[in-house]
Amino acid sequence: xxxxxxxxxxxxxxPDALGTGKLERLPQLExxxxxxxxxxxxxxxxxxxxxxxxxESLADIPKLRTEIFTEAPKTIITRNQSPDISFDxxxxxxxxxEHGCIYCYARPAHAYMGLSPGLDFESKLFIxxxxxxxxxxxxxxxxxxxxxxxxxxxxxxxxxxxxxYRITRSVIEVLAEFRHPFGIVTKSANVMRDLDLLKPMAEQxxxxxALSVTTLDPKLARSMEPRASTPxxxxxxxxxxxxxxxxxxxxxxxxxxxxxDHEIENILKAARNAGAAEAGYTMLRLPFEVKEIFKDxxxxxxxxxxxxxxxxxxxxxxxRENDPxxxxxxxxxxxxxxxxxxxxxxxxQRLGLNAERLxxxxxxxxxxxxxxxxxxxx
Length: 378
What we know:
The chain is of the alpha/beta class. It has 12 helices and 10 strands. The model is unreliable at 1-24 (pLDDT under 50).
């Protein structure tokens, strides 16, 4: 298996070369992927791109395949002090995500690895095999104070490679042993594989599972989130989890004004009918390199509405393409953002969603006796 020491940055189609007639897109690289370009990260001092020399040399480029690299972090719980999210710690078993969601705000993180937030983000993935061992060590610290841990805050913990590596499952096994509260956010029906762990924890109010449903249109979903579960499978997962007694949440993340905002009421209704008890949403975020990657996809997949969508995006971002400020980055500002927020709130209220938000328990946290320790008398 390749490691960080053997990894090399990859070249990609330069955005400024596209559409000139000199360089065509390469189907063998973009098939089944969200991004079609691979711009180098913002920290690189140079960039590379493929150029057709007139001798059909680009035809020899092989099909893009997913590559796996091993990462060995020293800690696994990531802390944050963001005032506009409901958790202060998270675990990401993977870096990069094969789901390939074109709008993913985590894409720019690949630039820190010397890789592209484009195709590299969804094809060059990093696994953390020691995640469970690190978690056990951190939870065993005598000064550790429990609070809800989010799984999937950055990249999806149930992306396709989880089927083989099972790192997310190993993390949940440790959380179950310590009776530690956690929440899951995913676009994968593969979360159902771990129902045997989730059900008993749900009985103790130790877990919530949020399924992200951005559209009910399978064609749009396949284009926008090419390797994630279909909308129907995500709704089926909500139903199965709810029937098993697991508190389920539907997340419409992100809402893209002018593209999927017309589905708000239908998505909430479908999720409520499946058994979801809570609902939330986020507005489209386009930080750093995501802007160009998303706009390239929009021009390619929806040329008839690309200008309208970007106009609405700017309207909800104060005239810019992105707003990184706490308090407004998730919901946006202005009339369009206000209307979307009110529609979502009214639909959720009408359907009985969020009538009671489950607060996960921390009082059940149990630190097992460690090897070599003496049991307490009382």
